[in-house]
Design goal:
Chain lengths: 430, 430, 430, 430
C-alpha cells in the first residue's frame, strides 16, 4: 500500500478565485480514486488500516488559485518525439484561452533549452489560431531536446517572464527536471505551478494506465510487422526481424505482437532469453524454418541487455545507453546459420523514427485532450509538483516524486505476457 | 451498491480436469475486482456493510470443467456488423485449438438462424487454417442476422450436435437470447456453457469499460468528419451534417467530436436540445454561419427522438426503431433557412455502413484477443450464463442478467460531456 | 483528325521579356505532340494530308509576355470538391512566387461569386506561407460555388484589380465560363490571360489523359467497396449496392470495380442494362444469391437514366439533373424480391461527399504540381483561352473551345470495358 | 529511331484455335502504336523513311495458338519484393482460368529456384480460390529469390511438366533469364511461350511508361518523408535524411520529393553532386540550418556512387553492389558538422523493406490487372520472348532483347528534373 504522504499533491496556496467555467459539476478536493482494486487487497486495507491508498481526482475546481486575466502560461516539450505532442499543446492552449481566459501562452522552443536565454531561441506566442491545425501533424511544433539545463537559470527565465504556470510534456527525465524546478521555485517562494503531462512512448510511467502516443505507436509498429511478415514469406527460410522501442519495458512489443498476429518470437527486457543451445532462440528458429520456411521475430530495444556486458554510458536524458540488440541479433543469427551452413534470408527493420513521428490516432487524440484539460484544471487550481494521469478510468493528479520512483513493467507472471505467449505460441526461451 | 447475488456467475459443476495450459499464474475463484473505485463509496461500503461489490476476475483456472478432447465448441455472431468480429472468432479458435486442445469448433452461420436446421445453413468447420487471416477483413466470416429464434429448437441443435460450449458474440438482444438458451439448457439439465462476448459498436453495455469495435468506429467516423469539415468550408455558409451510430448512447458522437476537433455542435440521445427559438440550434447555427461561414454538426442516431412523437415499432433485434434524426435535421435546417431567405449549403453524410464494416484497429485487435481468450477460460471452467468484460482494467465474468439490465449512457453531468463541451465550445441548447 | 485550327492556342501578344527561370531546356513554340498514336492513323495522316494533328507542348518558354514584377495573378476554384484542389493552388502560388517572381496573388473566394463585388467576399492574399501546408487537406482553401456569374461584371473586377492572369480550376461549366471571360476580355482588348486547370473527378474532359483527383477518388471508392462486400457477406443473401460519381462517364465505376476485385455488377452511363426479364440484372442477381449468398453492385450516378423519362432540369453548373439511380435500384431490387418472396438484405451506400473531399493521393499530388507549373508557364507566356492537359505523357496547352466540345467516355467496345468485364465476370445485361 | 527488327515479337507458330473470349473487339496483328510522339520526329520519320517506329499492340486475338483445355501455365516471381506481385499472380490466374479455360496453373516457388527439382520446392496448384484474396497482401504468395539458375535444367522441368506457357514476373535480371530460357526452348524446338511482366520498383525498364508498384512505393515513401520532416523540425538544426530505392534511376526519389512537398535536397544517380566546398551540399545545408533550423534530404540508393571508388561486386541478380550512400552521407554530415563545431541533429531513415512489401495501391492494382490480362492474351496467341508493357497509354508487346538493352533514367535536362528543382527550390550542387 502506498504511503498517504506519497499521494498528496502540493498546492501553491489557498484558492480564492471563482472558476470561470460553467461546468455542471466541479470536483471536490476530497474526491479520490482508490489505487488497488483487487477485492482482497482493498478489504485487507480497510480492515487492517481503516483506509486504502487513493489518488486525488483531477477535474475542474470551483475555486481556483490564479486569476486568469493576470496569468501567463508556458508550455515545453522535451525528449524524443511521441505521437500526440501537438494534440496536448493544442488542447492546453484551447482550454487555457477559451475556457479559463488565459490569453498569454508562451511556447518554449526545443525543450528545456528554450528556458535558457543564451540559446537565443525566444518564445513562440501560442494562440488558438496558431495551434488550430497542428494536431494533424506528428512531431512537436515547439521542437524538443534531450536533457536538463541549469535549474536556477530556468527559474530566472520563468520569473523574468512572469510565468504563472509551466506545463512540461515529457518522460522520466523531464519529470525529474520538473521536480528540480519545483524545488528551486519553492526555495524562492515563487507562485509558479509546474504540471507534468507524462509522455513516454514506452508506456512505462508508474501509476498511469496508459501514456498518450503508445497506442498510435503500436498501430504503426503493427504495419511494420506486416511488412516483416511478407519479407519473411517472400524468401526461402525468410526471417523478418523487427526492433521496436521499449528501453526498459516491453509494452510496445507485447501489444504489437498481439495486434499483428504474425509474430513468432517476442523478446522483452523483462523476460530473459537464451540465444544458443538446445531450446534457445536459434535452435527454435531453425526448427521453425525447417517446418514453415519463414519466421518473424520482434525485439524490444531493451531486451537481451545481458548480452552486452560492462559499463554503459547514459544519453542526454540520463537513460542508460543500450547495446543495439537488433543489430546484435541480426549478426548472431546470420553468423550462426552461416556456421551451420543453413540457408536463411534475414531482413532487419528498425522503424523507430517512422513510428514515433506520426500524428496521434483518434483514440490517442481524445486522450490527449482529456489529459491536457485536466492539466489546466490542476495548474489553475494552484497544484504543482505533480503530473496528470489516468488510473482505473479516473483522471488523477499524481505527485511527481511518486511518478518517477520506478518504471512500469510487463510482469512475466501476469496476464499480458500470458496472453502474448498464448497468442504467439512462443516457447519458453529462458 | 450492486447486490451480491447479481455478481455471482453460474457454474455448470465442479471442475475436475487439470488445465492443459502452462501459464505461470492461474486465477483463483476468489479473485475479484471491486466495482466502484471512488474512495468515498468504497469506504462507506466497508464501513456500513463490511464489504463492497465486486466482479469475478476472468483468466485461466487450474481446474477446468470440460475435458478438451471430448468437447465441441460453437461460435455464433449476431446483430449488425462491428469491427473486430473476425478477430474474436479467430482468437476463440486459436485459444480453443492450440491452448486447450478443443479440436472441433463449429461456425454457426448467419446468427441464431444457423441453429435452426430448417434454414439449411449447415455449420462451417473452424480450424486455425480457416481463420488465420480473417482478422484482416471487416465483417464476420460467419455471417450474421438480427433477432432471436425458437429457443427449444436451438437447444435441440446444440444437443444433437454435442456442443459443450457456445460462444455468442452480440449485443443486448443477443445476450437476452443467450439467457433464454441458458434457461432452456438448465431446464433440460444439459451441461452446455453459454458465454457471451459483448458486441455493441455504441459502447453501451453496462459494466464493460469499453466494447470492442468502438474505438475503430470512432477512428472511421473521425475521417468522415474531416470530409464534412472540408465540404462545409468549401461552400459559402456550408454546413456539414453527419449522423453516426448511437441508438441510446452518444459515446461515438462524443468521442468523434473530440478526436476530430472540427465539430461545432454535438447532439446526443442523453442531452435534449431545442431546434427553434432563441438559443436553439437553428439560431446558433445562423449566427455561426454569419461569423465563420461554415459549421459542422454531428448527431447520434438516437438524439432528438422527442421530435418524433407517437408509437414506434421495433426491429428484429427488439430495438425501438428510431425516427431518422439525420434526415429530419437536414430537412428542418434547409426549410428554416429557405424560409428566412438565408443562403446555406448543407451536405448530409450518413456513413454507418462504411464505419461498422472495416477491420479492427490494432488496439481493438488486441482487446478482441484478450476478451476471446478469457471467454474460453470461462467456458472451459464450466461458467455459463455470463459474458466476459473488462472493468477497472481487469478482465471479468459478468452474469448475463446483470449485463442486460440497463444501458451505459453518457452522463450529462459527467466529465465526458464536460470535456466535449469544453473542446467544441458548443453552447447549451436545451 | 482534328482540324489544325482547333489546336492553335491564342496568345495575348509577342513575348519580349526574358524568362527568369534557370531551367536547362526551354520549350520551343513549335514543339508539339501528335494526337493520335495508332500507327495506321498516323501513317494515313502523313500520307494523305502530309501531316497529323498535334497539340502544343506545355513547358517553360525562354521569352515570356508578362513582366513578373508588374504582374498580378488570381486563382479561382469552381464546382464540386475534388481531391487535389489545394495542391493545385499551392503549386500555382509557389511557381508564380518563387520561380517567376510574381508577388501579388489574389485568392478568389467561392468560385466565380468571388469576382462579383456585391457578394462582399473580398480576396485572400496568397503567399507561400499561406499555402504551405494546405495540400495536407481535402477541399479548397478558397471555397467554391457552382454556376456562372455576370461576365462583364467579372471582367470589371479583373480590370479594376489589375489582374494580369486568371487561373480557373474547374470542370466543363467552369471552362465554358472561362471562355466567356476570354471573349469579353478580347472585346475590351485587355491583356489578361485566362488559363484553365481542368478539374473533373469523373475524368471526362476530352484530350486529357487523366484529370487530377480521379485516382484518389478511385482509391477512396475502393475502400467503400470493401465495406459493401463485408456488408453483403455478413448477411444471408446480402447485397451491397454502391453509387459512385460518374454523371456522363463511368470511369470511376470501371476503375473501382477493377481495383476492388469484389464487384459483381458494374453499371455505367455508357452501357445500357435491362433490369427486368430473363437475363436482366434482377434475374442474374437472384441466381447469384442462390449460388453464392451475396452480391455487390456498383453503379455510376449517370447509369440507367433511361429509367427516368421526361424532362429534366439542370443544376447551377448547367449539368442535367440526373434521376437518382442508386435509390431507384435499391427500391426496385427490394420491391422485386419482396414480390417474389425471396429473402434478400440490401445495404445501400452513397459515399460521394466522403470520396471527393479527401486530400490528394501522392500520385495525384505530383500530377497537380505538374499541371500547375505548366499552367503558370502558359500564362506567363501570354497564352490564354486555353487549359493545360497531359496527352501521351506530354504536358500540353489545349484551346478551351476544343476541351469543352464533348466529354470523354468509356468506350463499350474498347479495352477498358473489356478488361472490366473480364475481371468481374459480369454477364451482358443489355 | 528504333530498328524495325527490334520491335518484332516472336511467335511460336500459326494461330489456328478460335479464341474462347466473347470480347466485342479483337486486336489485329497489324495494330501498332508509334514509339516517338513528338511531332517533329514523327514527321521526319515519315518524310525521310516513309515510316516510324512502332510497337505491337497487346490485347486479345481472335485466333490463338494454344488449345486452352490442353494447356498448362506456370507463374514465377523473381527478385526483390514489389507492391502488386500478388495482384499480377491473381489476375493471371483469373484470366487463364475463367476467360480462356486453362485449368492447370503451376505456381513456381521462390523464383527460378522453383524450376530446379533439387531444391525440392514442388509447385503450388493455383486456382481462383487459392488466389482470390491474395491482392490484399504485399509480398508474393509464391516466394521469390534472386539470380538465375541452370537454364537447361529449368527447361527440362518445363518440358517434363508439360508447361505450355511460363509467366515470369521480374526485373532486368529476370528478363535476361527469360531470354536464356527462350533460346534453350527454341534450340529444343519446344512450343513453350515465355512472357515477361516487367517488375521494377525503380520504374527503370525501357519502353514502359511506368512499372507496377512504383506508384505505391512513392506513396509509402511519401509517408516516410513526413516522418523525416517532423524529426527534422522537432530538433534544433534537425536533419532528416532518407534513403529510398533507385539503384540506377532516381524516379522514386524525384516523385517522392514532389509528392511530399517537404524535401529540400534530392540526390539522384543521374545528377552528380558535390559534397564539400562552396556551393556543395554541406555548405548549402549549413546555410539552410542557420536560416530555417531544419532540413530534409532525400537520396536514391544509387546516387553519389562516385564517392565509392574501385571495383564493386555484383549481387545474385547481377546488379552492381552499390556503396551505401545513405550511411555514407549520414557519417559525412555528422563528421563535417562536428569538425566545424556546428550543432546538428541528424536522423537517418532507410525504409526500403517497409516500402516494397506493402499491398498495391488501387491504381497499381488496376494496372496489374491490365498487364496480366494482356500477358495472357499474348501467351495464348503463342507470342514468346517478349514482355507486356504500356506505351503512350496503349498496352504493347515488347521483345525482351529490346527491353533489357538499357535502363530508363531521369533526364537531367528533361521536364521531370526541372519540375523537381522548381518545386523543391534545390540549388545546383554539381
Amino acid at each position: 500500500m502506498l504511503d498517504d504522504r506519497d499521494t498528496i499533491v502540493t498546492n501553491l496556496g489557498e484558492c480564492r478565485v471563482d472558476s470561470p467555467l460553467s461546468v455542471r459539476r466541479f470536483i471536490g478536493e476530497d474526491e479520490r480514486v482508490i489505487v488497488d482494486v483487487e477485492y482482497g487487497r482493498v478489504e485487507d486495507s480497510f480492515k487492517e488500516r481503516g483506509r486504502a491508498s487513493s489518488f486525488e481526482n483531477a477535474g475542474p475546481r470551483r475555486k481556483i488559485f490564479f486569476d486568469p486575466a493576470a496569468s501567463k502560461a508556458a508550455i515545453v516539450t522535451c525528449g524524443g518525439l511521441c505521437p500526440g505532442l501537438n494534440n496536448v499543446i493544442r488542447a492546453l492552449v484551447m482550454e487555457l484561452y477559451y475556457q479559463y481566459g488565459v490569453k498569454t501562452i508562451l511556447g518554449v522552443r526545443y525543450g528545456y533549452e528554450g528556458l535558457i536565454p543564451s540559446y537565443g531561441h525566444g518564445f513562440l506566442d501560442l494562440h488558438p489560431d496558431t495551434v488550430d491545425e497542428i494536431h494533424a501533424k506528428g512531431g512537436t511544433m515547439l521542437g524538443s531536446s534531450r536533457g536538463n539545463q541549469n535549474v536556477p537559470a530556468m527559474v530566472d527565465t520563468l520569473e523574468e517572464n512572469g510565468v504563472s504556470m509551466l506545463f512540461t510534456i515529457g518522460g522520466d527525465g523531464t519529470l525529474r527536471g520538473a521536480r528540480d524546478l519545483c524545488d528551486e521555485i519553492a526555495r524562492r517562494k515563487l507562485k509558479i505551478a509546474v504540471v507534468g503531462v507524462p509522455k513516454t512512448i514506452d508506456n512505462d510511467i508508474s501509476y498511469v494506465d496508459r501514456t498518450f502516443g503508445f497506442e498510435t505507436a503500436v498501430a504503426e509498429a503493427t504495419k511494420v510487422l506486416d511488412s516483416a511478415h511478407e519479407e519473411a514469406r517472400g524468401a526461402r527460410n525468410g526471417i523478418g526481424l523487427v526492433r521496436v522501442m521499449g528501453r526498459d519495458s516491453g509494452f510496445i512489443a507485447a501489444y504489437t505482437a498481439l495486434a499483428s498476429n504474425v509474430v513468432n518470437y517476442v523478446l522483452l527486457p523483462e523476460v530473459p532469453f537464451r540465444l544458443h543451445g538446445d531450446g534457445g532462440l536459434l535452435d527454435h528458429l531453425k526448427r521453425r524454418l525447417e517446418a514453415k520456411r519463414h519466421a518473424v521475430i520482434l525485439v524490444a530495444e531493451g531486451a537481451g541487455q545481458e548480452y552486452f556486458g560492462g559499463d554503459r554510458t547514459r544519453d542526454a536524458s540520463g537513460n542508460v545507453k543500450h547495446g543495439d540488440i537488433g543489430v546484435f541479433l541480426r549478426d548472431e543469427i546470420n553468423a550462426h546459420f552461416k556456421k551451420i551452413d543453413f540457408h536463411a534470408n534475414l531482413k532487419y527493420i528498425d522503424p523507430s523514427y517512422t513510428i514515433r513521428s506520426v500524428p496521434a490516432s483518434p483514440d490517442d487524440a481524445v486522450y490527449c485532450i482529456m489529459l491536457a484539460q485536466n492539466a489546466v484544471h490542476g495548474a489553475m487550481a494552484g497544484k504543482t509538483d505533480m503530473m496528470v494521469g489516468r488510473w482505473n478510468n479516473y483522471f488523477t493528479f499524481i505527485p511527481l516524486h511518486l511518478a518517477v520512483q520506478k518504471r512500469k513493467k510487463v510482469d512475466p507472471d501476469g496476464y499480458l505476457w500470458s496472453i502474448v505467449k498464448g497468442a504467439t505460441g512462443q516457447p519458453d526461451l529462458a
